[in-house]
Amino acid sequence: MAAIDLSASFKAYDVRGIVGETIDATIVEAVGAAFVDVLGLAGRDVLVGGDMRPSSPEFIAAFAKGAAARGGKVETLGLISTDELYYACGALDAAGATFTASHNPAQYNGIKMAKAGAQPVSSESGLAEIQAAAEAYLAAGVIEPVGEPGRIAERDVLRDYAEYLRSLVDLSGIRPLKVVVDAGNGMAGLTTPAVLGDQILPGLPLEIVPLYFELDGTFPNHPANPLEPENLRDLQAAVVRHGADIGLAFDGDADRCFVIDEKGEPVSPSAITGLVARREIARARAAGEDHPVIIHNLITSRAVPELVVHDGGRPVRTRVGHSFIKAVMAEEGAVFGGEHSAHYYFRDFWNADTGMLAAMHVLAALGGQELPLSELGAEYEPYVSSGELNSEVEDKAAAVARVREEFEGDDVAIDELDGTTFSAADGSWWFNLRPSNTEPFLRFNGEAKDRATLESLRDNVLAIVRA
């Protein structure tokens, strides 16, 4: 048997590759079989759906075939957002997979997997074993069916997903809002009308102005990656042109959401984390929790833990990455978690991330008072942030060592929770240097009490890094 290596597409948290090169239907069928074997799903429900990429229907069918051969009772969900998968895995207590490459270009596709209850499948919780089992099937050239193969049926979860989200955030009594939504030709083009519109459920006091709602996995208008500023420009212009109250931008699989105020200016994910944290703390305390836990990663603004403490919650700082966040959410019984990358996690959503639920919280906060979003959001952004700045550095460890030599002292705290974080003792600034695991980049994120301090800090650090 020839050795098969799938490491080009199996990553730490999911599978992602170029269609026809590192991922194809044969590989996907083997992964479906391995998914059932490794997670012990013979005789149990297995859910599978996908996004609007051209290869997704073929891959859904291939995964279902492999999973059923090994005894899985497969239910295909058709077109779904990633948070729809998490909903289905949580509400139905079943393991599942969705085909998506999130914000990656059109030639990519991949697989995000979850255990029953929407627990993540990562390299530390089954993904490495799934890779090995799939490689074995591919080397053998055959997937032997079990004595009693499973069956393949269809299921639609869109209405149930929409009803569940509406049960968590009541928007029926807010003031009327005009909302521009940029779906980026991704799955938010399907989920937004279902959750915020009137296509499935009764209408809300929202006038939705759609931008690129046509499902098209070739992304004809712009990449579905709102983290890049140039991909927000159409939304920013549309918000101003339509005189809208707010703009929402989703990534390709609609698990992340970015927010634009009425002036066309981005509201930082840290500010959204603070805003949603405030609502979730208040709700949890009203239900009798003494100090509700809020998770934030170490690159989120320091305004977040300060607000959490002020409102009677308990902030917990974590590494970057959804598998870490979800694990700590579960350990701590946290009510909410947020990341600088616009992933937002909710206890009421099985500790999983959902951009739509975060957007609903923002709409509820905005529509529950009279201030425009630019004023409402200002109190959540008291500091000046650099955003993420990349430096191409071959010897990343040496670059960090040079910075440490420059900044080390009694008035600077240094920790290595994730990369290296330097913090001024007086709280006036902090910055983090994190090496990319996949590229020759050293990533800088910083924050300071004013722009002059931040710019001086940024220029000094980047000069040392790039020396």
UniProtKB/TrEMBL annotation:
Please give the NCBIfam families that the UniProt record associates with this protein. Answer: PRK09542.1 (NF007088)
Question: Which cofactors is this protein said to need?
Answer: Mg(2+)
| Limits of the Alpha-D-phosphohexomutase alpha/beta/alpha domain | 9-135, 160-264, 272-382
Keywords assigned by UniProt, alphabetized:
Isomerase, Magnesium, Metal-binding, Phosphoprotein
User: Known InterPro entries for this protein?
Assistant: A-D-PHexomutase_a/b/a-I, A-D-PHexomutase_a/b/a-I/II/III, A-D-PHexomutase_a/b/a-II, A-D-PHexomutase_a/b/a-III, A-D-PHexomutase_C, A-D-PHexomutase_C_sf, Alpha-D-phosphohexomutase_SF
Keyword field contains Magnesium:
yes
Q: What is this protein called?
A: Phosphomannomutase/phosphoglucomutase
